[in-house]
Write a structure and sequence with these properties.
It holds the Pfam family B2-adapt-app_C. Residues 653-668, 677-703 have a biased composition (Polar residues). This is Beta-adaptin-like protein. A hairpin with a 2-residue loop joins β2 (778-785) and β3 (788-796). α9 packs parallel to α12. A 5-stranded antiparallel β-sheet has the order 1-5-4-3-2, with helices on both faces. The chain is mostly helical. 57% of the residues lie in helices and 5% in strands.
């Protein structure tokens, strides 16, 4: 066989750079082309520059050719300059010492006759992000803001914000924000105006925590002349710029209803926009403006239905999901308004699973007496879906509708039909729902038990389904003839059952069955307790030991504990608190709605805005230098995360229950808990009513007597409230505040209103802090962003050690403040509350 001829060596190509030899070759070619005036020199430069960019993209270090690239940039070819600017922007950050070589040619290009080159050079100059070169940026930026070319002015506006991030001092000393503001209000080009608005918002928002002047400038952005100036030009803006303007308008506080209607009339046509982001931003404006106008707010819901439903069916699955998330939020707030459009939420064959799941949740929410039959019929079709998760969700949706008391008879029959399907996951999900239905509708037990009794436990593999079946066997053992024997067979297979949930249910079910049918269950009960006592799972072992000792103590007591008379469950707990839902609604048209959690739960602290859990907003004391100015943000975040805990989670964590006692938990001995752990614990914000506090019984009796026409009762007049004088210089460190907040019971919890002037002044939260300090009420921590702000205040009774602690949550959209007060002396809480509300009502009026 003839030897194989050697293959020719492959030449290096831009897509396959060869490393150091390639870089050296590129440098040599760049030197050769640096002073070349050949007719094809520009074409050759393009080819070489393309190879350099290709090597850079492949990860090869081509910084050695920095000088040659800068020299070759002296050309009028825009394509070559673009590639050179890209190269310089990448390597200037990694090699600041080489960046100085680019200043001369970039400044020269900033004065070029071609506006495209001027704009590209200015953008590259601002993108160097080298602090040592800041002095070279100011003059080109100031010139660029006055450039006759729209493109250059656009670049310069964004460049001012870049300069602020590199050196805030240089940006402010050059008075660039004032130049941006003047350009924003006078430039004829809409995109330049939008870029100026974006840059000013970014600069002033970051600067507001350090400068009162910046805070006042932010307030001017939300003033009526500026807002209506943008609204009148909104059709000229790009889609991105329209969203920026609409976000600004959503934070504007109209002085009267006429302004609200003027804004809505100006934005009416934005609801028909083809871009979903513009439509959602417009809807946010409508919803926030009409929050305090109930009738108009409901009309807004009616008006926005059609645009949202159009967006759901018009875009990509990703866009449909985003719009559906916002629609789902609105459906949960006003389900009746969407009940007639239930067919719009039927699942399509081509819908992704995440869209189908969301549609099932919406169908559950809007079900009522008029559409339950059609919705349940549709959901039953999904139960046989090849997509198992969707089939599960559809069965759960049917059960949730039944728990809402809509057409229960027909739904129970449908669920019982699911048990006849030869699919394990369908049987398991149906058994869980049947258990919940029996807890709410005990009258259906005979029909359900007749079907459930025919199901073999051997055919159920999922723990939650088997646990539901065992619960029914124990709860209705008197109606199921074979219940003791089925339980006995499950006990025999105790070792094969690895789920603690099933074992716990089995212990309780056998106990219930024993109390109802003792002769048939006595042996099974002994075997169950023995197996439970030897179980390695702590919960199973503890429950078995508890039942054993309970039976030893008194079987009659055991009956009352394990199998007491039960009332039907009227309402099943919601997994999300009302406060969390309100926070999500306040952040409409953001990722908050998609994630279904407030933004502070998934964003880094530095991106939450200047007043979101800031650690340096105010001093803790008056006239005393404090090293630690506020309670740590992590503690507040832990308190807010507690809002998402379910009831069972809170019990497991040992939070305070409604009767004021601590939930039983197994805690480590105190000597095993280090000081660091003790200091990191947060005060749980309980909703306890002070037993010694004042009640409203006399007021209620008076209202009842007056309603019956009996006149006011002759009771002695209440003594006037004692005057309360506050210490002008109270001192309370963060640790003591935390400790007191955790120990004291809630004395008062009430809602009060703010004046429109006060709401407007809250654009700068520092103004409220200063106002309350003038009333001898100090702020120890504050946080939040529009429209929600949270403040922690404290005050001290003059001449005494009595402290008053206040949590104040203000919603600027509704002009309401929710106030919680805790006091060392509960008898003075009412007096202090009146004083606090008086000070709060005067905020913004002076």
């Amino acid at each position: 066989m003839a030897p194989t001829a050697p293959s020719p060596a492959k030449s290096a190509s831009p897509s396959q750079p060869s490393g150091k030899s390639e870089v050296a070759d590129l440098k040599q070619q760049l030197r050769h082309l640096a002073g070349s005036r050949a007719p094809d020199a520009d074409d050759q430069r393009r080819d070489v520059f393309k190879r350099v960019i290709s090597c850079m993209t492949a990860g090869i270090d081509v910084s050695a050719a920095f000088g040659e690239m800068v020299i070759c940039s002296a050309t009028s070819d825009v394509v070559v300059k673009k590639m050179c600017y890209l190269y310089v922007g990448v390597h200037a950050r990694n090699h600041p010492d080489l960046a100085l070589l680019t200043i001369n040619f970039l400044q020269r290009d900033c004065r070029d006759q071609d506006p495209t080159i001027r704009g590209l050079a200015l953008r590259s100059l601002c993108s160097l992000r080298v602090p040592n070169l800041v002095e070279y940026l100011v003059a080109p930026l100031a010139t660029g803001l006055k450039d006759p070319s729209v493109y250059v002015r656009m670049i310069a506006a964004v460049g001012a914000a870049k300069l602020y991030h590199i050196s805030a001092t240089a940006c402010l000393d050059a008075d660039l924000p004032a130049a941006l503001k003047s350009l924003m209000l006078s430039d004829p080009d809409a995109q330049v105006v939008a870029n100026c608005l974006h840059a000013l918002q970014e600069i002033w928002t970051l600067e507001a925590s350090n400068s009162e002047a910046a805070a006042r400038e932010i307030e001017t952005l939300y003033s009526k002349p500026v807002v209506f100036y943008f609204l009148n030009k909104i059709k000229e803006f790009s889609e991105w710029a329209q969203c920026l303007v609409l976000e600004l308008v959503s934070k504007f506080l109209p002085s009267d209803n006429n302004e609200i209607f003027d804004i809505m009339n100006l934005l009416e046509d934005r609801l028909q926009h083809a871009n979903g982001a513009v439509v959602l931003a417009t809807i946010k404006v409508f919803l926030h403006l009409t929050m305090s106008m109930t009738d108009v707010h409901q009309q807004v819901y009616e008006r926005i239905k059609a645009p949202l439903l159009t967006l759901v069916g018009a875009g990509s699955p990703e866009q449909s999901y985003s719009v559906l998330c916002h629609l789902h939020l609105l459906v949960m707030r006003a389900p009746m308004l969407f009940s007639s459009d239930y067919k719009s939420f039927y699942c399509q064959f081509s819908d992704p699973s995440y869209v189908k799941k969301l549609k099932l949740e919406m169908l559950t929410a809007i079900a009522n007496e008029s559409n339950t039959y059609e919705i349940v019929t549709e959901l039953c079709e999904y139960a046989g879906n090849v997509d198992v998760p969707i089939a599960r969700e559809s069965i759960r949706a049917v059960g949730k509708i039944a728990l809402q008391q809509y057409d229960v008879n027909a739904i129970v029959d449908r669920l019982l039909q699911f048990l006849e399907m030869d699919k394990d996951y369908v049987t398991a999900e149906t058994l869980v729902l049947v258990k919940d239905l029996l807890r709410k509708y005990p009258q259906w037990s005979h029909d359900c038990i007749a079907v459930v009794g025919n199901i073999s436990s051997k055919n159920i593999q999922e723990p939650k389904g088997k646990a539901a079946l065992i619960w029914m066997l124990g709860e209705y053992s008197q109606d199921m003839h074979d219940a003791p024997y089925i339980l006995e067979s499950l006990i025999e297979n105790w070792e094969e059952e690895h789920s603690p949930e099933v074992r716990l249910h089995l212990l309780t079910a056998v106990m219930k069955c024993f109390f109802k049918r003792p002769p048939e269950t006595q042996m099974a009960l002994g075997a169950t307790l023995a197996a439970g006592l030897s179980d390695t799972h702590q919960d199973v072992h503890d429950r078995a030991l508890f039942y054993y000792r309970l039976l030893q103590y008194d079987p009659a007591v055991a009956v009352r504990v394990v199998n007491p008379p039960k009332q039907a469950v009227s309402v099943f707990a919601d997994t999300q608190s009302t406060e969390i839902k309100d926070r999500i609604f306040d952040e409409f048209n953001s990722l908050t709605v998609v994630y279904q959690k407030p933004s502070y739960m998934f964003t880094a602290k530095e991106h939450r805005g200047p007043f979101e859990y800031s650690e340096d907003l105010t001093n803790l004391t008056v006239g005393v230098e404090a090293t630690e100015s506020v309670i740590s943000a992590q503690r507040y975040q832990e308190n807010d995360n507690d809002l998402l805990l379910s009831t069972s989670d809170k019990e497991n964590n040992g939070t305070t229950t409604s009767n004021g006692s601590s939930a039983p938990t197994y805690n480590a001995p105190s000597d095993l808990i280090g000081p660091s752990l003790l200091s990191s614990q947060t005060p749980s914000e309980t909703l306890l009513i002070n037993p010694g506090g004042p009640t409203n019984s006399s007021q209620s009796n008076f209202s009842l007597d007056d309603l019956l026409g009996l006149g006011a009762p002759e009771a002695p007049a209440a003594p006037p409230a004692p005057a309360l004088t506050l210490n002008s210089k109270p001192v309370l460190d963060p640790g003591s505040f935390q400790k007191k907040w955790g120990q004291l019971a809630l004395s008062l919890s009430q809602e009060c209103s703010l004046s429109l002037q006060g709401v407007a002044s809250l654009m700068n939260p520092q103004s409220l802090i200063r106002h309350m300090q003038s009333n001898y009420i100090q702020c120890i921590a504050s946080g939040g962003q529009p429209p929600n702000y949270k403040f922690f205040f404290y005050a001290q009774k003059d001449g005494a050690t009595v402290f008053f602690l206040v949590e104040c949550i203000i919603n600027t959209a509704s002009a309401k403040a929710h106030v919680k007060i805790k006091a060392d002396d509960g008898t003075t809480a009412d007096t202090f509350s009146a004083l606090f509300q008086s000070a709060l009502s005067k905020f913004g009026l002076s």
